[in-house]
From TrEMBL:
Keywords: ATP-binding, Cell junction, Coiled coil, Cytoplasm, Cytoplasmic vesicle, Cytoskeleton, Membrane, Microtubule, Motor protein, Nucleotide-binding, Phosphoprotein. ATP binds at G389, Q390, T391, G392, A393, G394, K395, T396. Residues 306-629 form the Kinesin motor domain. Residues 678-687 have a biased composition (Basic residues). Residues 651-687 are annotated as: Disordered. Minus-end microtubule-dependent motor protein. Involved in apically targeted transport. Required for zonula adherens maintenance. Residues 4-93, 140-206, 261-292 form a coiled coil. SUPFAM superfamilies: P-loop containing nucleoside triphosphate hydrolases. Residues 656-676 have a biased composition (Polar residues). GO terms for cellular component: adherens junction; centrosome; cytoplasmic vesicle membrane; kinesin complex; microtubule. GO terms for biological process: microtubule-based movement. This is Kinesin-like protein. Belongs to the TRAFAC class myosin-kinesin ATPase superfamily. Kinesin family. It comes from Trichechus manatus latirostris (Florida manatee).
């Protein structure tokens, strides 16, 4: 330990000298190889110090172990001394008892003859003496047993003493071995400390020599740097002058920059204002030209007799569900309300129609687009408006609406009533209404006494080529209450059922036929206009709608009639000589509206959800085909009546039913009707 302390003091002295060398000016450069060698030597020195520390730790552990074993040996020796003292005491006690026993035996032997005699005598004479003798014999036996026991204990103590001697010998041998190991470790430590001291001295000498060399190199480098500084002073003066000049320029730069920014901002603002004004002017011209183009297009369509087509997109509802299949797949052009875009299978498809209504459009917005056609019915033109689209797309809502928000049907009659009232001073008008449906290719009268009775479509016998339905009930309406009663009764008789696609799916094609007959009181001119409002049943896929049984048969008839309508549109579009109107009751009944003597408008209803994009694509393609059909110019149905016959004029229907027909289409002047009594009390037939 003294040697270790001396080595530590020398090492501290060497470290102090090394710190002084490092503190001197001209320290070695960072990349010098001598510095690397010095670092290596320091690492080696730290490793040696670690080894010394480890040896010290081992030595302390050995000292601790020797101390523990010495303590154990002292404890064993104390225990051995205690055992020996106890053994000596026991031996002394046993020997004392043994001497007492020998003395008792000797005394008893010395007194044996009289005892024998006495015993014999006692045996003859006294039982008490016999009992005392037996007690003495028992006590003697007990003393002999105790002597044997004490001998056994003595033997065991001798064995323990022998084992204690053996353990003491083993411990002394271990102590000797530990002392030898300690001496060997101490010798090894002394040798290692001596070698470490030699290595330390050698490393210090080498480091000192390298430090001197490095100091010399540093002095040389310092002389070179001073020379370079003397040469760089003129360049530094030049740079200082340049820096001062730049600094003066930088001080004035913010003012110059602000002035430049102000001028640039003014120019940019002026340019933006000019561009905005130009854009506003161009946008105004574009919108004006777009309106003129649409006006010219509508006029051209009217002159050609094209079928006008408008599209209406219903809003998203809870029935559409959630998830990716319920996302919106329809978008609109913000600048052109006749363009609709559909995203089908990841590809955008665009369609151009006459008008496109977004889901935000109201019933009034849609009606404003069609009210001009409805008004022309009063002037003697035939008008047909029919709604087309898949099941659940909103056709019935557009045509019929709800009690608080009515659709085209009720708004059309309200418009006709208002127009008739405005012209009441010069014209006399009569408005009659019929409601029919085509269910499973069977034409039925929804206002008749027997709604299930089949009706047929006939040609007028007067040779005009027009069609009529014998037996179809016709009622005159004069107020909104009459209209509501007719609609309520017709809606009650119409066939609707529940499907997977629509909770109240229309299973038939509904037709509202409004006939307006007018007469000019001053000229005697008579006009007859007919307004057909058709709510077509929705096209549907059987797999999606889940139709079975009678629902499946209904779906087949609906799809067949709509397919026939597509064939008629294709034939009209390609200007074929034969148009297959008779392939379906629907197309046969709409022959007048699709053959060129009517103003026809189609409302295509589409669903915006992703899962219905296939049906939406088909509906929009069909709408484009319908839009390209030219029906030719429309003629007005009017005739002039002579003044002499005006007072006795009787109104006749456009086509008079033969007298032999049992169920005739009621004429306005006949005063007869086939309505049931309950309805007749509510509505007065045309008189």
């Amino acid at each position: 330990m003294v040697e270790n302390e001396r080595l530590r003091q020398e090492m501290r002295c060497c470290e102090a000298e090394l710190q002084e060398l490092r503190a001197k000016p001209g320290a070695p450069c960072p990349g010098c190889e001598h510095r690397q060698e010095s670092a290596q030597l320091r690492d080696k020195l730290s490793q040696l110090q670690l080894e010394v520390a480890e040896n010290k730790g081992m030595l302390s552990e050995l000292n601790l172990e020797v101390q523990q074993k010495t303590d154990r040996l002292a404890e064993v020796e104390l225990r051995l001394k205690d055992c020996l003292a106890e053994k000596a005491q026991e031996e002394e006690r046993l020997s004392r008892r043994l001497r007492d026993s020998h003395e008792t035996i000797a005394s008893l032997r010395a007194q044996s003859p009289p005892v024998k005699y006495i015993i014999k005598t006692v045996e003859v004479e006294s039982s008490k003496t016999k009992q005392a003798l037996s007690e003495s014999q028992a006590r003697n036996q007990h003393l002999q047993e105790q002597v044997a026991m004490q001998r056994q204990v003595l033997k065991e103590m001798e064995q323990q003493l022998q084992s204690s001697h053996q353990l003491t010998a083993q411990l002394r041998a271990q102590i000797a071995m530990y002392e030898s190991e300690l001496e060997r470790a101490h010798g090894q430590m002394l040798e290692e400390m001596q070698s470490l001291e030699e290595d330390k001295n050698r490393a210090i000498e080498e480091a000192f020599a390298r430090a001197q060399v490095e100091m010399k190199a540093v002095h040389e480098n310092l002389a070179g740097v001073r020379t370079n500084l003397l040469t760089l002073q003129p360049a530094l003066r030049t740079l200082t002058n340049d820096y001062n000049g730049l600094k003066r320029q930088v001080r004035g730069f913010p003012l110059l920059l602000q002035e430049a920014l102000k001028s640039v901002k003014a120019e940019i603002g002026q340019a933006i204002e000019e561009v905005n004004s130009n854009n506003q002017e161009l946008l105004r011209k574009y919108r004006r030209e777009l309106q003129l183009r649409k006006k010219c297009h509508n006029e051209l369509v009217r002159l050609k007799g094209n079928i006008r087509v408008i599209a209406r997109v219903r809003p998203l509802t809870k029935e559409d569900g959630e998830g990716p299949e319920a996302t919106n797949a329809v978008t609109f052009d913000p600048d052109d309300d006749s363009i609709i875009h559909l995203l089908h299978k990841g590809k955008p498809v665009s369609f151009e129609l006459d008008k496109v209504f977004s889901p935000r459009a109201s019933q009034q917005d849609v009606f404003q687009e069609v009210q001009a056609l409805i008004t022309s019915c009063i002037d003697g033109f035939n008008v047909c408006i029919f709604a087309y689209g898949q099941t659940g797309a909103g056709k019935t809502y557009t045509m019929e609406g709800s009690p608080e928000n009515p659709g085209i049907n009720q708004r059309a009659l309200q418009l006709l009533f208002s127009e008739v009232q405005e012209k009441a001073s010069d014209w006399e008008y009569t408005i009659t209404v019929s409601v029919a449906e085509i269910y499973n290719e069977v034409l039925r009268d929804l206002l008749g006494k027997e709604p299930q009775e089949k009706l047929e479509i006939r040609l007028c016998p007067n040779g005009s080529g027009q069609l009529y339905v014998p037996g179809l009930t016709e009622f005159q309406v004069q107020s909104l209450d009459d209209i509501n009663k007719v609609f309520e009764f017709g809606h009650t008789n119409r066939t609707t059922e529940f499907t997977n696609l629509n909770e109240h799916s229309s299973r038939s094609h509904a037709l509202l036929i409004v006939t307006v007959r007018g007469m000019d009181c001053s000229t005697g001119l008579r006009t007859t206009g007919k307004l057909n409002l058709v709510d077509l049943a929705g096209s549907e896929r059987v797999g999606k709608s889940g139709a079975e049984g009678s629902r499946l048969r209904e779906a087949q008839h609906i799809n067949k009639s709509l397919s026939a309508l597509g064939d008629v549109i294709a034939a009209l579009r390609s200007r074929q000589g034969h148009v297959p109107f008779r392939n379906s009751k629907l197309t046969y009944l709409l022959q007048d509206s699709l053959s060129g003597d009517s103003k026809t408008l189609m409302v295509v209803q589409v669903s915006p959800v992703e899962k219905n994009t296939s049906e939406t694509l088909y509906s929009l393609k069909f709408a484009e085909r319908v839009r390209s059909v030219e029906l030719g110019p429309v003629s007005r149905r009017a005739e002039l009546v002579s003044w002499s016959s005006q007072e006795h004029l009787e109104w006749e229907p456009a086509c008079q039913t033969p007298q032999t027909s049992a169920r005739a289409h009621s004429a306005p002047g006949s005063g007869t009707s086939s309505r049931p009594g309950s309805i007749r009390r509510k509505l007065q037939p045309s008189a």
